[in-house]
Each structure stands twice: as C-alpha cells, then as structure tokens.
Amino acid sequence: MQKVEHIGIAVKNLAASNTLFSKLLNQQPYKQESVASEQVATSFFHAGETKIELLESQNPESAIGKFIEKKGEGIHHIAFAVADIDAEVERLKAEGFIAISDKPKQGADNKLVFFFHPKSTNGILIELCQEII
Ligand code: ZN
User: Fold this and answer.
1) What pLDDT score does 38 carry?
2) Are 116 and 97 in contact (CB under 8 A)?
C-alpha cells in the first residue's frame, strides 16, 4: 500500500457540492467525470498529497444511491494507491478481507479499482487503485 490516494464522499447534488468544496479547498475541481458502469458522476479536487472525490448517484439503485438512502451524505470510501493491484487484491483476500467483485475494473480518474466490503474493514469501504499507464 502506498498513500491514501483519495477520500470518496457521497453527495446528493454534485453541482452544489462542487461549489461547497471549491470554497472549502479554495480551488476548482480538476476533473469531472461520469462512470457509466457505476451510474455515478464524480468530481475531483486536489488536497495536498491526496484528493477528494465527490460522488453523485445517477440512479437510485446504484451503490451511491443506496448508500445515500441508507446513511445520507458523507464519507463513502477511502482509496489507497497500490503499485500492483492484482497482487494486493490477492494478498488481502488471503488475509480474509471480503472482496466486492472478482477483478479490478476501470474506475474514475484513469484508475483500475477494486473494493473490499466494509463488513470486513471496521465499517469503511476500502478501495485499492492503480494508475493506468
Ligand atoms: Zn474512489
């Protein structure tokens, strides 16, 4: 594991939260992107060595839609950068962490991503991400 690559925050209204986080962080988002496979719209802000990812559901049945309905807005996941996502996924599975999917897949911000279930990680959804070169 390398650094905390970003913190994902579920929001109800991306436009309103972009305005809010632009004030908070005193900068504009450097990227906005929809991820069709996750039915989510995202925006990214730099925050020193790490980033903030805002996530808005595009469908009530999406993972973010369900999260917001159940828990409201707030921290949705913590993402760690890894150099070799396949190796790290295997290592964590062997340690007993519960994988959410089979294989890493393409996520936002030009990354391969993989998630571990909050049931196995003290209630925090954990994302591993590796930059696609
Ligand atoms: Zn993320």
Assistant:
1) 86
2) yes
In angstroms, what is the span from residue 78 Cα to ligand 1's centroid? 7
How many CA atoms are closer than 13 Å to the CA of 16, on its beta-carbon side? 6
Q: Which of 88, 110, 10 is nearest to 53 (CA)?
A: 10
Q: State the distance from the centre of ligand 1 to the C-alpha of 131, rounded, in angstroms.
A: 12
Taking the centre of ligand 1 as the mean of its atom positions, its distance from the CA of residue 28, in whole angstroms, is: 18
Q: For residue 51, how far is its CA from the centre of ligand 1 (angstroms)?
A: 10
List Cβ neighbours of 124 (8 Å cut-off, separation of 6 or more): 75, 77, 78, 118
Query: What is the per-residue pLDDT across 36-71, written as a single tens digit (0 to 9) for each?
Result: 888 999 999 999 999 999 999 999 999 999 999 999
